[in-house]
Amino acid sequence: MKNISLIHIILFFMLFKGFSQEDLIVSHSRFLQKENTSAFGINNMNKTGVLYNSLGLTGNSKIESRYFFGSISFDDKNFSIGLDIYSFTMNNVGLVNSKPRISYIYKVQLDNDLYFLPSISLGLGSSRFDQSNLIFEDQLSLVSGYLQTESQDPLYELLGSSSYIDFGASFLIHSNNFLAGLSLKHLNQPNISYLQETELKLPIKFSVQGAYEWDVNPYDRRWLPRYSSLLAFFNASKSGNDIEMYLSQEFQLGEVSIGLNQQFKKISDLSFTNVGISFALAYENFEFGTLYNFPFQNPTNTSVYSPSTIEVFLTFDFSPYRRNKRGDYRRISIDNYY
Question: Of the four listed, 120, 237, 290, 307, which is most buried by Cβ atoms within 10 Å?
Answer without folding.
Answer: 237
